[in-house]
Amino acid sequence: MSSSTSLLRDDVALTEGRPPLLSVSGDAREWTTRHRDALRAVVAEHGAVLVRGLGLSDRTQTGAVFQLLADRLMPEKEAFAPRQAYADGVHSSTAWPPNQQMCMHHELSYTLEFPGLMLFACLTAPTEGGATTVADAEAVLTALPTELTERFEREGWILTRSYNDEIGATLEEAFGTDDRGAIEAYCRVHAIEFAWQDDGSLRTRQRRSAVVRHPVTGRRCWFNQIAFLNEWTMDPEVREYLVDVYGDEGLPFNTRYGNGDPIGPDVVEAINDVYTAHTRREPWRAGDLLLVDNIRTAHSREPFEGAREVLVGLADPVRFSDVSVTLEGNAR
């Protein structure tokens, strides 16, 4: 182990209920260049780390730091809500109402290639709330009811989506194009069932594993967006409105058991309760940097007030076929 790695490990503050915290000083690019491997080793050990003191203040500087930290930055495909893409693999936070909770999830856990590492940088901290919280996916899997996890591990989970021009991500935002032929080709390659509706909208269905093995440790992790993208996690008034306008099958997104059975509100509540019990939070400060192992650690965004700018980097793509323990990633 290098002296740099040992130094960072010794400096990480571990406090119950908070993510691992590393307080540093110095020029952001120089510090990251010098400590890049050691910092990634800390993430490998703890699953996440919040670095405080780098003074990240603009997109160009942040993009350079993201490039230094990542093996490879990746674009976003199949987004469930719009976000703005900046140069060099730097994205805005997902557009999500500031007064609503963005529940725990693993980024793009429904795609066949997803980021293994998430990078977050706070340029403007909100006046209240808005923390990006984290939760250990191994601990969550252990804490969930056994009969529930065994069923999901056996069957997987299904994500259904309905794309239109009024709610959620548009076709172009999700697929990078609105050309039907290109979208259909993408869906076929990525094991997504699809059906065009009479009004020109698109409905899709994909079945994925709910539990995966970490590619480095081999440990089983709860890895999905079953609760977050389920209808019962929506604000009740929003759900009622969407069902009234678009029908049960026209919701922008919803989740089901792998055999197609609906998931009840009791199951969604149970999953979110376990996430809540394992949540670690630290309020953002301007200039903070957060690194998250996207397989081992779930993340969320809490409601907030005031301006908030958090940039996001999706890094180090992982293929689902390399970590799935129950399915081959095929829809049915």
From TrEMBL:
<dbReference type="InterPro" id="IPR003819">
    <property type="entry name" value="TauD/TfdA-like"/>
</dbReference>
<feature type="domain" description="TauD/TfdA-like">
    <location>
        <begin position="30"/>
        <end position="313"/>
    </location>
</feature>
<protein>
    <submittedName>
        <fullName>Protein AmbD</fullName>
    </submittedName>
</protein>
<dbReference type="Pfam" id="PF02668">
    <property type="entry name" value="TauD"/>
</dbReference>
<keyword id="KW-0560">Oxidoreductase</keyword>
<dbReference type="InterPro" id="IPR050411">
    <property type="entry name" value="AlphaKG_dependent_hydroxylases"/>
</dbReference>
<dbReference type="GO" id="GO:0017000">
    <property type="term" value="P:antibiotic biosynthetic process"/>
</dbReference>
<keyword id="KW-0045">Antibiotic biosynthesis</keyword>
<dbReference type="InterPro" id="IPR042098">
    <property type="entry name" value="TauD-like_sf"/>
</dbReference>
<dbReference type="GO" id="GO:0016491">
    <property type="term" value="F:oxidoreductase activity"/>
</dbReference>
<keyword id="KW-0408">Iron</keyword>
